[in-house]
Structure formats: structure tokens, C-alpha cells
Amino acid sequence: MKNNFPLAPQVAIGAVVIQNKKVLLVKRNKEPGRGDWAIPGGSVKLGETLQQAAEREILEETGLRIRAKEPVYIFDAIIRDGAGQIRFHYVIIDLMADFISGEPAASDDAADAGWFGPEELEGFKVSERTKDLLRKIQFLC
After folding, report:
1. pTM for the whole thing?
2. Which residues have C-beta within 8 Å of that of residue 133, sequence separation ≥ 6?
3. Is the CA virtual torsion 113, 137, 132, 7 positive or negative?
4. Among residues 2, 10, 73, 138, which is most buried (max CB within 10 A)?
């Protein structure tokens, strides 16, 4: 990155973890999407597989151990500043994941973390991409 503006798209992952009919979400503590509830995740490091990145990021962000599986949703997140310059450009790959252990506790890039049922999300500021993903996997109708 140069002056905090990307020179190329960055690859990022998210992990869709569902347990007892509740999905794991984090409240974003950084831009883009500060204050939104979203699928937890982050950047893929050089040499990591998507699954390794998801398992590491979810542990860092929520304290949970997961086993990441296959991708279920892929999208571009391109966000411009007021002058039209590209401020963020991520190619985000969301993977399904199995819960292994732990209790959600926000850390790293998350302001909050927890398990939420579909009915609990109605009053939340949930990102549109997260809603689209949760509809696709039939968590939300």
C-alpha cells in the first residue's frame, strides 16, 4: 500500500460458523464497515491457504477454534473516498466452518463478537453482503 491506498486488490477471507442455529458475527472496529455486524475474517497472509487464514483470523478476532471448509460466497469490496480514489479493494472469500471450541470474545479488529439467531439480527446494523450470504446459505429467509 502507498499512503494507505492500495496498489492492488487484497485477498481476504471470512468464516461462516453456525452452532445451535446461531451464526458467529463480529462488530467491526475498523474501516471499512466500522460499526457493522459481519462475518469474522481478515487478510490472507503469503503462504497461507484460505482455510489456514480463516482458522487463524477467527482465533485472533474471536478466540474461537474452527475448522474451515470450502468457499460458499465470493465478492469484491471496492470502497472509494470522497475524491473517488480507491480506499479499499478486497476480494473476499467466505468459507463455511465447523465450530471446535471456545467462547466468543472480541479482540484484534472486533469491537464485539457473539452468536446470533436470525430473529436477533433484525435490529442490528448488518452489512448487506452479510445479509446476502446468510440468505444464500438459508440462514435468513
Report:
1. 0.92
2. 16, 39, 72, 73, 94
3. positive
4. 73
**What is the CB neighbour count within 10 angstroms for residue 60?**
14
Q: DSSP of 33-92, one letter per residue?
A: STT-EE--EEEPPTT--HHHHHHHHHHHHHS-EEEEEEEEEEEEEEEE-TTS-EEEEEEE
111 vs 106: CA distance, rounded Å: 6
- Which residues pair with residue 103 across a beta bridge? none
d(CA 140, CA 136): 8
Task: Report yes or no: 41 and 18 within 8 Å, Cβ to Cβ.
Answer: no
Give the residue carrying C-alpha cell 481478515: 42
10-136 falls under which CATH superfamily? Answer: Nucleoside Triphosphate Pyrophosphohydrolase (3.90.79.10)
